[in-house]
Specification:
Elements: H1 3-25, H2 40-47, H3 53-89, H4 95-125, H5 129-150
């Protein structure tokens, strides 16, 4: 590879990392209270399941036991996103630094997903087959609503976002 091609390739890589970092940085402000109310979504789902008193106690114990883990993960996520934000806002962003910061944010996202999946399995173990089916239906319906809202525009579904124009 000659020098010009190498410089162009390096510049393109730096630009792509910078854009990826900026995209990850976008929308990291107020998240509609999600961080302030951990478990809010699952609590709403559980309210529709007619849990026994024993199940309610076990679910409460499970959620309280998981809370410190999630608080630690949320703080790690804030730190990772701030490092990415700082790397992308530098006067001359270093592609390696931006790339490493982006990979840390991605690794954190994967860790959160794995933790949520593990918590969900523990929760489902406390439910009857009928309750698990009802929970899956509730989850599926809410997932579809979120996807429909996300398809209505770039900020659709977020609190305080302007509504998509009606036809």
């Amino acid at each position: 590879m000659n020098t010009t091609t190498r410089r162009l390739a390096t510049g393109a890589m730096a630009l792509s990392l910078l854009l990826a970092g900026s995209a990850a940085d976008a929308g990291q402000g107020f998240r509609g209270g999600r961080e302030g109310a951990p478990g809010r979504g699952i609590r709403a789902a559980l309210a529709s399941l007619d849990l026994t008193d024993d199940q309610k106690a076990k679910v409460k114990e499970l959620l309280e036991g998981e809370r410190p883990k999630y608080e630690t993960l949320r703080q790690e996520g804030r730190t990772a996103r701030e490092a990415l934000r700082t790397a992308t806002k530098a006067a001359t962003p270093d592609p390696a630094t931006v790339g490493a910061a982006f990979l840390r944010v991605d690794a954190h996202r994967n860790a959160m997903r794995a933790e949520r999946d593990a918590s969900r399995q523990k929760l489902e173990a406390l439910l009857t087959a009928e309750q698990r089916a009802k929970l899956e239906g509730w989850t599926s319906a809410h997932r579809q609503m979120r996807r429909a809202a996300a398809g209505a525009g770039p900020r659709a579904g977020r609190r305080g976002a302007p509504r998509a124009p009606s036809s």
